[in-house]
Amino acid sequence: MSWAERSAANLLPLSVEQRRFPVALREWVYAGDMYDMETPGGTCELCGHPDIRYHFKIVNQHNGNEMLVGSECINRFGIAATDPLGNVLNPEESRQRVNRDRRFLVTEAKKRKLINTLVELAGVEEQFNIQSFISYVMERDAFTPDQLAVLFWRLDQHHIGYTPTDFKLTIRRDREKTQLRRMAAWKIRKLWPALSASQRRWVQENTDYESVAFSASKVWPFHPIWFDRRRPRLSKPLIEYVTGNTPSWAHETIRNWEEVYSRSGAVDMINFVTREVFEPMSQADMREVIGQYDHYAGQTWLDAAIDPQYKPSKMRSVFRMYDENPSYYFTGKLENGICLSSLNGGPWFSDSGGNHRTVVAKFACERKFEETGIYPHVSGVMKHHYFADLEALDLFKRLLEFRDHGIHVSVERRRLNESRLHGKHLFEYTPAFFVWDSRFGGDARSQWLCAQQFRRFARHVLRQNGQITRLERLQHYWLQFGRSDYESLIYKSQ
Ligand SMILES: [Zn+2]
What we know:
Helix content is 39%, strand content 19%. It folds into 4 domains: 3-105, no CATH class; 127-209, no CATH class; 238-388, no CATH class; 390-483, no CATH class. The protein is α/β, with parallel strands linked by helices. The strands form 2 sheets. Strands 5, 6, 7, 8, 9, 10, 11, 12 and 13 form a 9-stranded mixed β-sheet that branches. Mean pLDDT is 87; it is low at 212-233. α6 packs across α8 (185-191) and α16 packs across α17 (451-463). The protein has helices at residues 3-11, 21-25, 71-76, 91-124, 130-140, 145-157, 174-182, 185-191, 197-206, 226-230, 238-244, 257-260, 301-306, 312-324, 355-372, 390-400, 451-463, 470-483, and strands at 28-36, 54-60, 66-69, 80-81, 255-256, 273-284, 289-292, 339-343, 348-350, 378-388, 407-421, 424-437, 445-449. The structure holds zinc ion. Zinc ion is lined by residues 44, 46-47, 49, 69-70, 73.
C-alpha cells in the first residue's frame, strides 16, 4: 500500500464521504490543538509514519471525529487550518499557521528542557540563584553572555547534561556586547553552539576569538575527538605531555626581545645595527630560544602553553595541529613560519612570526629528546641575525645626558651594501652621527661623524665630564680665526 493509499484507508472510515479521499479531506480542519509528546515515539494516525514527536489534532467538521497527525501530513494533504475565531484559512495561510505552531512547540520544548536543566542545577548548587535565571529567560527568551558562560561552566562542573543549542544568547544591548568583547576565548568557545549565525559573525568581527584557526574546513574546536575518529593518534596529545612531564625550563619566564633589541624609548636600536643576515629555511635548536617579542613574554613557557595570555584559542589549535601532524616542525614544512632573531650571536627570540609555534616546538623537541635521546633541530626556520654596534649605542645613551652642557647628538642608519650568498641575504649599514656642540659659545660647532669618530668624541667628552679645557678653548679660537673653521668638533681624533 502506498503512502496515499494508507492515508485514505485511515481517513475514509472516520469521514462522512466514504469513497473519494480528496473530498473526504475537505471535511477536516486543524484548529490549533497541538501536543509535544516529549519523545519522538508517536505515530501519525493518518499516514502511519512512526517517530512523531509533535502531534497536531485535526477534526472532522461534520461528525467531530479527531485524528492526531504529523505537521507534514497537514501540509502535504492541504488540510485547512482555522484561525482562533474558527474561520477557515486559505491553503497558504493554513500552511503558515501549521509551520508557526510547529516552531512554537519546538521553542517551548527547548525552553522546558532548559528550565528542567536549571532546576537540576539548583538542586546540586545551593548558591545558584535559579529564580533570577528563570525569570530572565522567561522574559527575554535568552541569556546574557555572562549568564550563559556561568551557567555552562556550572553545568559542566556538576556533570549535568545539556544541549548548548537549546540555550539562546542575546547581544542586542551594549552591555551584552561588552561582555562578549571582554570574554576569554575559551568561554566564547563554550558559548559558540548557542550563538546564532549573525551572532557568530559579530563575534568574529568584534573580538579576537578565532573559532577556526588555520583552516576553515576544520570544525574541531567543539569536537575535540574529531581527529581521533579520522586518524589514529600515535602518541598522547602534546599538551598532556606539557602538563604531565613539565620540563624544568618550562618554568622559566619567556624573555622579551624588547629587553635585548629595544626600539622604543629614547634610543632606537635599529640605528646601531651594522649588519643583518636573513637565513631562510634554516635549522634551529629550540633550546637556544629564550624569548619572544611581546605575545607571551613575561609568562613562563608552561603558562604560555596552558594558560596563554594572548589568543588562547590559537595556542590550543597550534598544539592540536602538531598532534595531527607531528612531522611538521622537522621536515621543513614550517616554511619559515617561525622567525627567530638574535643579536650579536646571542640567544634567539621569536619576533616577527610563529610565536605560538615557537612555544609548541620547544615542547615538541623536548618530548622527542625524551623519546629518542636525540634533541632534534626544527627545520624551515627563518633566522634573522642582527649585529649592532653596542659600544656606540652605550656611548650615545650616555652623551644624551650632556644635553644641558650644550651637546646634542642624533643618529641615523645608512645602508652600505646588500648581497646574497648561499641563500642568505646580507645587509650592511653604518650609523651616522650628527653632533652639535655649543659649549664654546656663539655659533655651535657641528659635524657628521662616522661610528669610529663618534666613539672617540664621546669618550673624550665623558672623560672630561662634559667640561672643556683651556687648551680646547684656545684650539677653538685658533680654528676660528686662523683657519676660518667654525664647524669641526674639537676632540682628540687620533
Ligand atoms: Zn502523516
